[in-house]
Amino acid sequence: MFNGDPFSEASSADRPAPDDRSRRPDSSTEPTGPTKSTRPTKSTGPTQVDQPADVPDEAPEAPKAPEAPAHATAWHAARTAAARAAQPLPSVVRPLGEALGQALAEPLAALTDLPSFDTSAMDGWAVAGPGPWRLTSEDVTPEGTGTRTDAGILAGHAEAAPLSDGDAVRIATGARVPPGATAVLRSEHGKVRGEGRELYASRHITQGQDIRPRGQECRRGDVLLPAGALVTPVVLGLAAAAGYDELTVTSRPRVEVLVLGDELLRAGLPHDGRIRDALGPLLGPWLRALGAEVVATRHVGDDPEALHTAVSASTADVVVTTGGTAAGPVDHVHPTLRRLGAEQLVDGVEVRPGHPMLLARLAPGRYLVGLPGNPLAAVSGLLTLAEPLLRTLSARPSPPPYRARLIEAVQGHPVDTRLIPVVYQHGDRARPLRFHGPAMLRGIAAADALAVVPPGGADQGAEAEILDLPWTADGIGISAGTTTGTGGTP
């Protein structure tokens, strides 16, 4: 449904394409958005990624009188409705390697002290008492409980024999400190003399120096992370260190993607009035970055029976469709929802691009997110409806809202919120990018985030609410989850 041609729009940036028709409110007002003002910490510096000076930008559409239907939902209210539409999915137990990107369903409590024994923090010598020290080099048989050898005490072995006052022994980083040791002398701070039998320090050392005492990081039973914390690569490492082989996490929402439209090509160049499918390749990775398990991406033609069959047969927690959400001759999403007896939760949103998006409850615990067919409008729908819904289902924490100061003024829509791609500059400032029409992906492909521009626009220097893209918001990349199938017809 017009999802692949980035130059199919006329000069107006918000002129509705056949699958992006206007849903304007009557006299409703935009609710007040988040007011917390924090700053992005990254800075990309000046990035020349938007359009050349000799190519005019798409001009926002001229003000028009508000049109029906009146049930279109204000943008902030739509996000809130999507977040409140569901409950978190049940918890599951996953091996560490399969828990990335999911939320902890219960607190992460240490199963052991960390470290679990006194450990050398450096390569050097374990020493007992004040120096100089006598170096010991007794060999230990394999049957012995100690690990003191000519090479010293090595990591990964049982506890060595105790040190007497005035003794020293070679020790490796991570090795167990022998009983009686009072400090570790770093290799670079020691000098061996007297035919290799005496150790001298080149600087003063203190009691306990370079020894990581047992329980320094945590004691067994300490809560390391609360329930709801996102499992990042570092969390996996911490859990392993604390004794875990598996984690109890909230289940991933299972999502099926239905890409609608007879005009879409899955390979090659556009021809004969047909265009490339841009959303099929985009949606799976984006949804996985939101914590979903994408069970299938299917292509469905402009056939109401085919769409009804695909939606009714799906067992996914969430069905995501592209296109067909307006009221044109091949827009079959609304009739399909009525036929299925679905509960319409959001039907149109006061946002540009993407106003014909929708959210419906197919059955208890099952949902459909209808995205517009134009690519940037579909991205708007992902951020407005799909992301809050999936965060709730997966119990993933929402990033705190923040604002950035706009380097340039942005012309707004008379009554709708606008989502504009931006890049960060100078730490706490954002530069709006061009190529932000509903059918265009060029702007957001170069963007760090999207700025939320209220009705009426924003002046240069004004602070705008910022929506990070999922791979910048959570920091876990787009590899969490798997794609397990494709189907349908080209």
Give me the count of strands.
28
Q: How many alpha or pi helices?
A: 8
User: Sheet with the most strands?
Assistant: 7 strands, mixed
Label the overall shape.
Answer: elongated
Low-confidence stretches: 1-69, 138-149, 477-490
- Which bin fits the share of residues in helices? 10-25%
Radius of gyration: 30 Å
Structural class: alpha/beta
**Share of residues in strands:** 15-25%
* Strand neighbour order, sheet with most strands: 19-21-22-18-14-17-28
Mean pLDDT: 81
For this entry, what is the oligomeric state of its chains? single chain
End-to-end span in angstroms? 13 Å
Primary descriptors:
25% strand, disordered N terminus, alpha/beta, disordered C terminus, seven-stranded mixed beta sheet, 28 strands, 16% helix
Characterise this structure.
With 490 residues, the chain is α/β, with parallel strands linked by helices. The longest helix is centred in the last third of the chain and has 20 residues, at 375-394. The chain is built from 8 helices and 28 strands. A 7-stranded mixed beta sheet has the order 19-21-22-18-14-17-28, sandwiched between helices. The protein has a 6-stranded mixed beta sheet with strand order 8-5-7-6-10-9, with no helix packed on it. Helix 4 (304-313) packs across helix 5. The protein has helices at 75-84, 233-241, 279-289, 304-313, 333-340, 375-394, 442-445, 470-473; strands spanning 73-74, 91-95, 108-109, 119-120, 124-127, 133-135, 167-171, 183-186, 190-193, 198-201, 211-212, 223-225, 246-250, 254-260, 264-265, 275-276, 293-300, 318-322, 343-347, 349-352, 358-363, 366-371, 402-406, 417-425, 429-432, 449-453, 463-468, 486-488. It starts with 72 loop residues before the first strand and ends with a strand. Helix content is 16%, strand content 25%.
